[in-house]
Amino acid sequence: MEIENLSDSNSNDILRHPAEEDSDSSLAVEVIRIDNGLPLPTYQTKDAAGMDLFAAIEKELVIQCGGRVVIPTGVRVAIPRGFEMQIRPRSGLAANYGISICNTPGTIDADYRGEVGVILVNHGDTDFVVKRGDRVAQAVFNRIHQAKLVEVNELDTTARSTGGYGSTG
Q: Which domains does the chain have, with CATH numbers?
């Protein structure tokens, strides 16, 4: 079963249903490994949405409670135009230690070519030690659309209207 990608009229750009055995929904992303002592980012399971990013640090680094630090990942990427790479927290680090990403999700734009960094923040009760090769975040690739803003004098009305923070319960 093939599903046409409605966001792009190019007939060669077809998304296949994920349940298909021969499905190939992969996206080719060029990568330069800056740190040859570490593996490339890796999916831990066949159907994982995010690939793990590794800490490319020379020695242990301590993130104090309430502190934050940029952790290099040892890779540079060329993300295809029309896509972004989101940097997301790892659920185990968040649940067990209070470690998250400061600007979650972080966005790596398609035109960025520098080393990918992860801004870790310690929301936990104790200092957290990052070691070389630790899996510190996940990378998820998404299609993006640049919006064309159209300035108007009024917006259409909705049932919610201007109700914000907590207005829906």
A: 27-143 (2.70.40.10)
